[in-house]
Amino acid sequence: MSLVLERPRMPGIAPLLVLASVLVMASLVILPLVLVFHDALAKGLPPFLAALREPDAIAAIKLTLLVAAIAVPLNAVFGVAAAWCIAKFDFRGRSFLLTLIDLPFSISPVVSGLVWVLLFGAQGLFGGFLAEHDIKIIFAVPGLVLATVLVTFPFVARELIPLMQEQGADEEIAALTLGASGFTVFRRVTLPNIQWALLYGVLLCNARAMGEFGAVSVVSGHIRGLTNTLPLHVEVLYNDYDAVGAFAAASLLAGLGIVTLVLKTALEWRHAGDLASGRKH
Amino acid sequence: MTDRAVPNPIVRVAPYRARRSRWKEPSILPGFPLAMGITLTYLGLIVIVPLTMLMLRPWELGLDGVIGVLTDERVAAALKLSFGLSFLAALANAPLGLLIAWTLTRYRFPGRRLLDALVDLPFALPTAVAGIALTALYAPNGPLGIWAAKIGLKTAYSPLGIFIALVFIGLPFVVRSIQPVLEDLDHEVEEAAQTLGASDFQRVWRVVIPAITPAMISGLSLAFARAVGEYGSVIFIAGNLPMKTEIAPLLIVIKLEQFDYAAASAIGAAMLAVAFGSLIVLNVIQMRFARKGRV
Amino acid sequence: MAGSTDLALEIRGISKAYGRFPALKNVSLQAKEKEFLALLGPSGSGKTTLLRVLAGLEHPDEGEVRFGGEDFLALPVRRRKVGMVFQHYALFRHMTVAQNIAFGLTVRKASERPSKSEITDRVADLLSLVQLDDLGKRYPSQLSGGQRQRVALARALAIEPKMLLLDEPFGALDAQVRRELRRWLRELHDRAGVTTVFVTHDQEEALDLADRVAILSEGELIQLGAPNAVYEAPATPFVFDFLGAACRMPGTVVGDRLTIGDWETQASKGAPQGVVEVFFRPDEVAFAPADGAGLAAEIRAVAQRGPDVRIEAMVNGQLLELQAHGPTLPIGVGEGLSVRIRPMRPQVYAAS
């Protein structure tokens, strides 16, 4: 391996450190990724494709897309509204609000599912009411959406708030002095300034929403073809010792992860100036 | 002649606008009520109400009941395992994260950018996928597990397997926390240390390490908090033997399957409290460091 | 003095506090049609707050602002039609220079909005007015500081403002660009014929540019007048000090006689009686031989700095730094020598 050092210092140690880093990354991150695709294709392409064409797999894919399609826009709207308040205005309790927004990051995914069972489960707060009116939330799509929304709650807000704080409100105020209405200011000044960070946040939010396992596993009930999202489908097949099927489904999710990573990296390179400074590599 | 400003004999004019509520500094930007309304409503429905439920539900067992649940042999073992291994994993991530962040910021080598991007893979890869992949990799007959088995190490289906999974998910938190600090670290400070006669080791140990310590602590605390609650990537590799390799989140699932909501929420609330508490403690330590490190 | 007929801007009794901190205390002033008014003061003097009140970005706790007879405070920012140039320009970073300038026109209601071609023409006119003809397609990040400043000005002028407000317009520029732009801005003002209020902490800038200067300190208006008048007769020691280098000596006034140290002279008309403080400019001093009239001074050091001579002298037990214009030294001045100095235009203030 040819090494070009930024500064010719510690020349003896540098290759060793690089090698060590690559080894750590390989054993923890790269090999597992490779293994997913390897095992998915272990018996060749036809079983792989068959596993993805199975009705349960297709239902799981559709359900995953549906849940993300509801959860992500909700969190995006919330993220923009929260960032507008926190970054452009000064009010008491601002940092407390920020802490509350971050809270879901420190909650176990399992707890993020559990809380909805406590509210809407058979013995939950509203369990009796829901049973009476024959409304299903837990072990049904609404529960999956709620669990996903809670897990991915801070993603968009977290990308927008630091960026909008950096940008300040000068441009918006200038636009007001030039005669623009509030909505025009948002549409023509604020939104273009945050579009890439918004996309970045949506990207991460979506990746997590589609890949969430712990929270949805608690509220799903694992009903094949009905409430199994793709990650749950992976689990079911894996526990059935259907390695090819499990890894085939997993490879779809891994693909999602890779695409997310590529787009994210591209955003970081191409639009570094339009992301919050913590994202500018 | 100067026309000096003579205080005008002015009739006091009524204030332009009634004094606004005290909690908000007046700003001329519009949209605050609407945006705040959306924020608080959504935050309340999605986060506050459900978490309040979590904190309230255990008490239907009474204080003794809650203590009983948490001191139950199996639960205590699971909590100990989760917190202990999360702590060890965070500790292991300190040198590993520093190694990778250092390599990525200080050296230029082929594939550096790819390696840099891959650091985020544990963020981007769905946890269930990571879980089955790590399991297959470190299983006794897996590509890496087979080597570990040869030296007598059981990786998958043992605490060591859980540890590996927790290191996996914690790594990006640590790398991404210290990487920007290493990048911004003033070269002149390091060079100054050298002109003052510091050896390479002294330069790193006495200049670089103190500079990244606050970021390192914050990265480690994030990694720790995430590891405590982690489910997907651990559950497959853990083996899930009661008292041995059963993690706390799994116990919540088990209690739920027994419809023991109160016990499940007691464990959940305890985990949340400890995770949150440790975050606060670490924040305080970090603030100390930050204050000390301010130039 | 401002007549009442051509008054454009009337500010009366404006007070504004941030919490317990009073930013403006009962400030009143007027500006005439097409006047160029400077708000001058150190930081924290309230000058920027006053400008922001005019723009509608702050609401005063008390007071009244009228423009052309209209109650300005009742209008929200967007209806005031003031062209505001922000200290850091606040250009829209994702819009080109041309789009920045056109913004104020394009956000108008459809019924009031000029047609596309009219907007294009107007932008072209403004670009040439601010001498940036070829830069319409650039983005703000591709411009120098001085160019950004001019774009900000063109953007503010595009809405045909009733009043132009400039917040430290040269604050973010280096000294060279600053001086060039200053003259240019004055010309632009004269051509555009808009009432202009600008904020600065640089007394040279204010005296050089403005028709009248309003000097603020700690939220109060201290003095308002033409640059020359203000400079010649500062109303308070603060103004004297703020407008340039100052020497300060204690003295007494009895009747029409002023005594400083061992020197007695005619007091200026209307000088306060009793213990006073005498201020004079370090370069407005006449030197005389040791047996002449004036304050006894011992020359401690003489340093030639280009066209100026800096003279350190011990006067009345106080070390003063005086200035003389070179290249030759005033007669009798030399290190270690005794001379007499006579402030040519001392200002006398009652001792505080």
When the domains of chain C are counted, the total is 2
* Shape descriptor of chain C: elongated
| Element pattern of chain B in H and E | HHHEHHHHHHHHHH
Q: Total number of helical segments of chain B?
A: 13
Regions with little confidence, pLDDT below 50 for 5+ residues of chain C: none
| Overall pLDDT metric of chain B | 85
Q: Indicate the CATH topology of chain B.
A: MetI-like fold
Total E-strand runs of chain C: 20
User: Radius of gyration of chain B over alpha carbons?
Assistant: 27 Å
CATH topology term of the largest domain in chain C = Rossmann fold
Q: In the CATH hierarchy, what is the superfamily of chain B?
A: MetI-like
Explained architecture:
The complex is a heterotrimer of chains A (281), B (295) and C (352). Helix content of chain A is 73%, strand content 1%. Chain A is built from 13 helices and one strand, in the order βααααααααααααα. Chain A has helices at 14-40, 45-53, 55-88, 94-102, 109-120, 127-132, 141-151, 155-167, 170-177, 182-211, 214-220, 230-239, 243-270, and one strand at 4-5. The radius of gyration of chain A is 23 Å and the shape is globular. Residues 1-6 of chain A have low confidence and may be disordered. The radius of gyration of chain B is 27 Å and the shape is globular. In chain B, helix 3 (73-106) runs parallel beside helix 8, helix 6 runs parallel beside helix 11 (232-238) and helix 9 (187-195) runs antiparallel to helix 10 (200-229). Chain B has 13 helices and one strand, in the order αααβαααααααααα. Chain B is an all-alpha fold. The longest helix of chain B is centred in the N-terminal third of the chain and has 34 residues, at 73-106. Chain C has two domains: 7-233, Rossmann fold, CATH 3.40.50; 245-350, Nucleic acid-binding proteins (OB fold (Dihydrolipoamide Acetyltransferase, E2P), Beta Barrel), CATH 2.40.50. Chain C contains nine helices and 20 strands. Chain C has helices at residues 47-55, 77-80, 97-106, 116-129, 145-158, 175-192, 203-209, 227-232, 237-242; strands at 7-18, 21-32, 36-40, 62-67, 70-71, 82-85, 163-167, 195-200, 212-217, 220-225, 247-254, 257-260, 263-266, 274-280, 285-288, 295-305, 308-315, 318-325, 338-343, 347-350. In chain C, helix 4 (116-129) crosses helix 5. The mean pLDDT of chain C is 89. Classes of the chains: A mainly alpha (281), B mainly alpha (295), C alpha+beta (352). The interface between A and C is medium-sized, with 17 and 28 residues.
